[in-house]
Specification:
The protein has 112 residues and is α+β, with helices and mostly antiparallel strands. The chain has one domain: OB fold (Dihydrolipoamide Acetyltransferase, E2P). 31% of the residues lie in helices and 35% in strands. It is built from 3 helices and 6 strands; from the N terminus they run αββββααββ. Strands 1, 2, 3, 4, 5 and 6 form a 6-stranded antiparallel β-sheet that branches. It is globular, with a radius of gyration of 17 Å.
């Protein structure tokens, strides 16, 4: 009985760590970047978004607002995304799931 309780406790305590882990998106180019100012009506929904993909498909990643809550980007991170867009650099996004299964950008890796 004690062994089963201990196993159940270990499973329950391990699940939140797995559920909150950052996921890694597909590598691609920054196809578009949108940054909303605080005066924008859309700012409440999301503070910004980036589309990452290749010539055929792209995936949307958002940050901030009701879509992604506290998952925000710093001004420096947004500047890096802009440089990746301008320079044609590939990135590999890191994300967490937000409201409505939205992909919330929590980081990225730049690639040559």
């Amino acid at each position: 009985m004690f062994r089963r309780a201990l196993t159940a406790f270990a499973l329950v305590t391990a699940l939140p760590a797995v559920a909150l882990a950052d996921e890694t998106g597909g590598t691609g180019y920054v196809k578009a970047l949108q940054v909303n100012q605080t005066s924008s009506l859309t700012y409440l929904q999301f503070h910004g978004r980036v589309f990452v993909g290749d010539n055929k498909d792209s995936t949307e990643y958002r940050w901030g607002g009701t879509s992604c809550g506290t998952r925000t980007q710093t001004e420096a991170s947004v500047a890096m995304l802009m440089r990746a867009l301008d320079g044609g650099l590939r990135i590999q996004p890191h994300y967490q799931i937000g409201q409505g299964q939205m992909l919330c950008l929590v980081g990225f890796t730049t690639l040559p």
